[in-house]
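queue> holo job accepted (NDP)
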Amino acid sequence: MDELNGKLALVTGASRGIGRAAALALARAGADLVVHYRARAEAAREVDAAVRALGRRSLLVQADVARAAEIERLAREAGPVDILVNNAGIAKPQPVEAITEADWDQVVDTNLKSCFLLTQALLPGMRARRWGRIINLSSVAAQVGGVVGPHYAASKAGMHGLTHFYASHLAREGITVNAIAPALIETEMVTSNIKATPDRIPVGRFGTVDETAEVIVMLARNAYITGQTINVNGGWYLS
Ligand code: NDP
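queue> job finished
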């Protein structure tokens, strides 16, 4: 399992949850890593060390993806990224009447605008090398509404439009762009939301971060899947 040897992968939000599992799975598949995080430096350092222990190179970069200037710095420090996993995100479960414009901006900037800005920053390098993989972590919320709120659902649905545009625009340039729409993967995002319960899932349990990470690795390897949304959702939404 080494066909990603020599490729550089940037996983945003790699300090924990799905991002952590994705970073480790990509490293096991041969990639070098940029391990990005926002606040949890200690957890991110542990992921960085685990990647190195697998024999890959790893660079740790802190940045708040809700801030354009920090994304610019992240892209600069990361270097020639071949595989971009837009994973960092927040859910803000709130009573619908309580959601303000500031909440909307925070969720949409963090989940969607960051994905656009980081893609724009790293795309010129991928185009020059005529090889790239962009993998966007959207959500079942884009398809069914979900259990967080309209700001979250809209931010994730926006990722699908962005995925479709870039995929069709870049199809002849060796760059694939896909989305993964998970549902109720057992991470802090899910365990901290009282509305996220396993009985919503047809298979009857939460998914695991490794079940999501293996799809991320599959999309990183595959050159013929582009413009798709892969649902890792225990059968909640059927496409
Ligand atoms: P977690 O809440 O477990 O982890 C979130 C990660 O994003 C952390 O690494 C965190 O960094 C980082 N992050 C959050 N805000 C920012 C920010 N402003 N700037 C930079 N980094 C930030 O999430 P999950 O692993 O559960 O989710 C990963 C992705 O998958 C998200 O986009 C989420 O919306 C999506 N998803 C998850 C589902 C699930 O069931 N778990 C379902 C559907 C979609 P730090 O640790 O430093 O705070």
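queue> Residues 8-232 form a domain with the Rossmann fold fold (CATH 3.40.50.720).
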